[in-house]
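Dear colleague,

Thank you for sharing your sequence with our group. We've completed the structure prediction you requested, and as agreed, I am returning the results in plain text so they can be pasted directly into your records. Please verify that the sequence below matches your submission; if there's any discrepancy, let me know and we will rerun it promptly.
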Amino acid sequence: MMKNKMFTRVLGMTCALIMAVTAIVPVCAKESGDQANSFRYENGQAAVQASIFADVYPNAWKKIAGKYRSSNGSIIQGAIARGIDVSHNQGVIDWKKVKADGVDFAIIRCGYGANQREQDDRQWLDNVLECEKYGIPYGAYLYSYADTVAKAKSEAAHVLRLVRGHKITYPIYYDLEDNYILSHTNAKQRQKIIQTFTSIIKKAGYSVGVFAPKSWFEKELPEASFNQCEKWVAHWSTKCTYQGSYQMWQATNRGTVNGINGAVDINFLMLPAAKITVKAAKKKVKVFWNQKGNGIKVQVFCSTKKNKGYKKIATVNSMKGKAVIKKKLKSKKKYYFKIRTLKSVNGRIYYSDYSKSKKIKG
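Please find the predicted structure tokens below.
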């Protein structure tokens, strides 16, 4: 009898805990109909993140004391702005409340697949007009099914038809996540598809990028595809562990934002501190860095003291990978160099943290 009572009590406590967690954790943001074949689903069901209980942290994915926090409360290194991506699946959004909740930008789905009006996202125009009304910077994305260059051209035309005449300030992203693409193309074909789409968008005067899950960037998409476009990496975890360079991170599909019913994807614009390498000659110094990206610049600073007195001596396009400083070094004198990156988005300049300083001797 005592065992039965104890079992009943434990069972009741377990059920209460499950109900409490269910009440706190939002349902996963999803895309109906056209994304059931993507990484977002497993065996037809919405994928569950490993950090499901961590999202109970009250300030998950928000800015606290000037720093963005992950789902476990840790600081997201390199995050400079927080945004959302939305489609018709979020329904009618109260964008005034969204802005008041500290959302810096939005990436809005314009549609999916080829240039057919029935494949336009039905909330695209309303979302765009509301963002423009409330001054929320936004970009666009199109969910791709392209397995040929011809289809990539049609998908590019699809996007350009919908963005024409609007005040888009963030990139247009090519959403590559459907498993159909992997099963019907090889790496070389995928590279041609990406380059076809991105070159058309870039030629039309827009910034362009590619969205894909982390595993695709690591294994399925050739690095040469991204010479002229940005990377938006989906990795639902407490931090992004992708080792390549990237400009945006989709951190979770279970975010909550005022003005949106249910869950929404949370994204961070990333500008991490770059790593610096310095090589010296008699009359010049070569400064190298690892952080490259379209629209990103690198500032070079120099001082004769490690912890103070730094002066900016150069600003260089990050894509060059190095700066050559014509500076005559005094014999046996110590010089310290450090760098930081900057990026202008919608008229606002964002700065990364400074790199660690590097010492050389004249």
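Summary note from our side: The radius of gyration is 23 Å.

Kind regards,
the structure core
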